[in-house]
Design brief:
The chain has 5 helices and 3 strands. By secondary structure, the protein is α+β, with helices and mostly antiparallel strands. Strand 2 and strand 3 form a beta hairpin. The radius of gyration is 19 Å and the shape is globular.
């Protein structure tokens, strides 16, 4: 052992392993598509529903690795917002839409300012 490590014991770098797992989970979510200009999303957007389904499939694992506090009752936009917060990003609030009913739809995203 002395010859290999100069007398020190090998101790695995747990932080490096944890960071790799975090990066892999973030890559699986494909967050780049949510940061494109000119796009906007609501809770019924297929992209948000896809990420939510991925996260809810293994919610405990996501919360343990990302430490983002996603709850099973969170809406799709809240799930994505909590994941984006891990990389210091967020989807800005754009507007509130009503279609004549009492329910409203909040839209988030990036608009191209021209």
């Amino acid at each position: 052992m002395k010859e290999r490590n100069g007398g020190s014991l090998f101790i695995p770098d747990v932080n490096k392993i944890t960071n790799i797992a975090r990066v892999k989970l973030l890559e699986m979510c494909n967050l780049d598509r949510f940061l494109e200009e000119g796009k906007e999303w609501c809770n019924h957007s297929p992209e948000l529903l896809e990420v939510s389904a991925l996260v809810f499939k293994d919610l405990v694992h996501f919360n343990q690795v990302l430490r983002c506090g996603i709850a099973i009752s969170d809406s799709p936009i809240t799930v994505v917002q909590k994941i984006l917060k891990q990389i210091n990003q967020r989807l800005p609030y754009l507007r509130n839409e009503r279609d004549g009913k009492e329910s409203s739809r909040n839209n988030f995203g990036f608009l191209v300012r021209g």
